[in-house]
Specification:
41% helix, alpha+beta, elongated, 25% strand, 6 strands
């Protein structure tokens, strides 16, 4: 092989290693509360509390259903921001965290199928499904900054 081919291989290898290091960093990111592996949660008194929902909970407030996965690097990177915003807005809006597991155990399967079958979610994570006064408003896909998330929430409340 020529020297140029070796340089290209070395650069590609460095990029691949960099991607894995970045994903490892994201997966190890810490927050005040580590992201659970699976389950359905809500913030209560500033802490995560297990709960159970199968559809949109009735509420006169704005409700956000956050669909996340423990195995998704984007979800892991978005978790600290989402958790912080949920704590800041506790009592003003309700944010339910649905941490989907690969096997989709029964409660997660029910809620995932509900949103997917009603065409409110396309299966991508992280996804935030927004309701206001019990009516569907929008779905946001992908991670975002704290400022962008707060601005979007402010627009719908």
């Amino acid at each position: 092989m020529k020297l140029n081919a070796w340089i290209i291989i070395a650069v590609l290898l460095a990029i691949i290693i960099g991607i894995y290091v970045y994903q490892y960093y994201i997966m190890q990111s810490t927050s005040a509360e580590p992201m659970p592996e699976k389950g359905i949660f809500i913030i209560e008194n500033g802490r995560l509390k297990p709960t159970n929902i199968t559809k949109i909970p009735p509420s006169n407030n704005t409700v956000i259903i956050a669909l996340l996965s423990d195995t998704c690097p984007h979800c892991r990177a978005f978790w600290p921001t989402l958790y912080k915003v949920a704590r800041e807005l506790e009592g003003k809006i309700e944010i339910y965290f649905v941490i989907l597991d690969p096997a989709l155990s029964e409660p997660m399967r029910d809620i995932a199928f509900y949103f997917y079958n009603n065409k409110l979610w396309d299966g991508s994570v992280p996804a935030l499904i927004v309701y206001k006064n019990g009516s569907y408003v929008t779905t946001w896909i992908g991670r975002m900054s704290e400022e962008e998330l707060l601005n979007r929430i402010k627009e719908v409340t």
